[in-house]
């Protein structure tokens, strides 16, 4: 088994097929039934997750619970990193996040960006922006190649 990342050529339809399959994988995860969110792999090493915050995601003081921040930041960074790997599912091994502002309601986007690593461990960062473009959170994660083949996951559907 190779320990290097299988990095799809971002100019080919193979890369686009991998990106769409990752989007399908995200949509198929049972946890995402709890969130009105949509993943887009915008380019190799870059992702965006758009979602809505409303009262159903609030803590007792009337703003989005930290769970929402972590989930969306982790997912955006994870998918940015996994866009570089077309054979294996990555696993989050650590994540550091910063809450920079509360959000009560509205549209939010999590932008993920791969930072470093193309072998076994990847580093990616993410930021949360509210509908006015103001940062409300940011984080950095480390992700490791697993033994789980993407092709064996039911939500990972490669077309074309």
Structure description:
It is a single chain. This protein has 160 residues and is α+β, with helices and mostly antiparallel strands. The chain has a single domain, classed as Thiol Ester Dehydrase, Chain A (Roll), CATH 3.10.129.10. It contains two helices and six strands, in the order αββαββββ. The protein has a six-stranded antiparallel β-sheet. The protein is globular and about 45 Å long. The two termini are 26 Å apart.
| Overall mean pLDDT | 92
Number of strands: 6
What's the CATH first level?
Alpha Beta
Major sheet: 6 strands, antiparallel
Radius of gyration: 15 Å
Strand sequence of the main sheet, in spatial order?
A: 1-2-4-5-6-3
Tally of individual domains: 1
Give start-end ranges of low-pLDDT stretches. 1-11
SS strand fraction? 35-45%
Computed structural class: alpha+beta
The helix fraction, in percent, is 10-25%
The coarse overall form would be: globular
Distance between the termini: 26 Å
Q: Mind telling me which CATH architecture this is?
A: Roll
Topology:
Blueprint: H1 13-28, E1 37-43, E2 46-53, H2 66-82, E3 88-99, E4 106-116, E5 121-130, E6 135-149
């Amino acid at each position: 088994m190779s320990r290097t990342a299988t990095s799809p050529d971002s100019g080919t339809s193979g890369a686009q097929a991998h990106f769409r399959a990752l989007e399908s994988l995200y949509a198929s995860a049972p946890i995402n039934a709890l969130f009105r969110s949509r993943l887009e792999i915008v380019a190799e090493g870059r992702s965006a997750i758009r979602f809505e915050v409303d009262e159903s995601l609030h803590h007792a003081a009337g703003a989005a619970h930290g769970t929402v921040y972590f989930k969306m930041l982790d997912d955006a960074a994870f998918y940015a990193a996994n866009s570089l790997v077309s054979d294996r599912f990555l696993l989050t091994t650590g994540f550091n996040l910063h809450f920079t502002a509360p959000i009560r309601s509205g549209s939010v986007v999590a932008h993920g960006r791969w930072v470093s690593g193309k072998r076994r461990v990847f580093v990616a960062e993410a930021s949360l922006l509210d509908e006015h473009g103001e940062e409300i959170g940011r984080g950095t994660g480390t992700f490791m190649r697993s033994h789980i083949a993407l092709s064996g996951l039911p939500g990972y559907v490669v077309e074309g």
